[in-house]
Amino acid sequence: MVQTRRSTGASAPITLTSSDSHPESSKRRKAASADELETGTSTKKPARKKRKKTELSTDSEAFPVRVSNPWKIGAHVSAAGGVENAVRNAAMVGANAFALFVKSQRKWDSPPLSVENVDAFKRRMQEFGYSPKHVLPHGSYLVNLGNPDEEKRQKSFNCFLDDLQRCEQLGLELYNFHPGSTVGQATKEESIALIAECINNAHKATKYITIVIENMAGSGNIIGSRFSELKGIIDHVEDKTRVGVCLDTCHAFAAVRAPFSALQPFYCVFRDMTSQRKMDGISTFDAEVGLSYLKGLHLNDSKTALGSKKDRHENIGLGTLGISTFRHIVSDPRTQDIPLILETPTFEATEIWTKEISALNCLSNLVDNSDVPETEHSLVNEITSLVRSHVVNKTKKVSKTRARKQDAMEDHDSDCA
Ligand SMILES: [Zn+2]
Ligand SMILES: [Zn+2]
């Protein structure tokens, strides 16, 4: 039996509209598929009927209990159908924090947020009890603020600024983005200065949002795989109260450079927090960048080896980082009260996130050290069997679809014969 430090009192939403509280089982409700997260689009059809809004208490069956925990653990949920849906999707997986795209992350232009979307988002934030400081929107993958080509950089900046303005419209405080690349046309120092210049210009064009730079896996000309590069950007930023860093565990693990040593800063961040070494990773981050800049983490295990430079996310405990890494992270007081966001595969089944979130909440509450190996082992087994079952289901679905397509082609061929 796992003992916990704190009672796990629910912080579930207080009241909901009838449309919010529609009793959907988690099985029926498929939130962000990996594909959907990538494209920001959904194949889900909109509800046919809109029910009249009335205040009703939450259907506890529909929402898992959200544990009270100083470590704010959540996931990057789908905003398909409207940004307001992200809030509900977060609650559906028991998240105490969440990430979302505030527009399609693969298009340069998207229609503006409607007043209805903004109002519904704000209303649901209140209803479900989320604080803006635990929401970490993610930027477009198209944006490259480090591009030395002025025209292309300007296009990126316009898209970036549009995202920031959307966040402020929604009352959000943080915005996470990938710093960019030299595209082989500039030195890293030059691109770092360009990224910082864009951040400075964006600060002037917005009111309060904090711009959060994500560390990267370290391939090619990409900026941001070293603490020194993140610090380099921050050094050029004029308003340092409105800039920060989000550490992605998978990227950090992939970015470690050979020769691999336990003293490698990123490696230590996630492996040696509890070791006796004086210079653990968070301390290294504190020394090289500054702990006050740590605004969030992306909790992803890795499919690839230390130093692979590959960005391949794996479910918690099933990859090369291992579950103990995540126990260290969600037990370290320095990672409290900031968004800790899963970007792990769901195979179109958000039950996996529900399980991972509850596992991480459990790990951050462990008190009895003797229980740790046993608890970690059983949590990994639970996650493994859930992931396996969904991989099997997805494989079956793909096979069925292929078979249907094959049948259709054969029918077509015989019609044409
Ligand atoms: Zn990212
Ligand atoms: Zn990430």
UniProtKB/TrEMBL annotation:
Region annotation (Disordered) ranges: 1-61, 397-417
Gene3D superfamilies the record matches: Divalent-metal-dependent TIM barrel enzymes
InterPro entries xrefs: AP_endonuc_2, AP_endonuc_F2_Zn_BS, Xyl_isomerase-like_sf, Xyl_isomerase-like_TIM-brl
Pfam families, A to Z: AP_endonuc_2 (PF01261)
Record-level GO BP terms: base-excision repair
Bias (Polar residues) ranges: 1-20
Regions of compositional bias (Basic and acidic residues) in chain numbering: 404-417
A cellular-component GO term for this protein: mitochondrion
Coiled coil: none
Matching PANTHER family: APURINIC-APYRIMIDINIC ENDONUCLEASE, ENDONUCLEASE IV ENDODEOXYRIBONUCLEASE IV
Recorded family membership: Belongs to the AP endonuclease 2 family.
Protein name (database record): Apurinic-apyrimidinic endonuclease 1
Organism encoding this protein: Suillus placidus
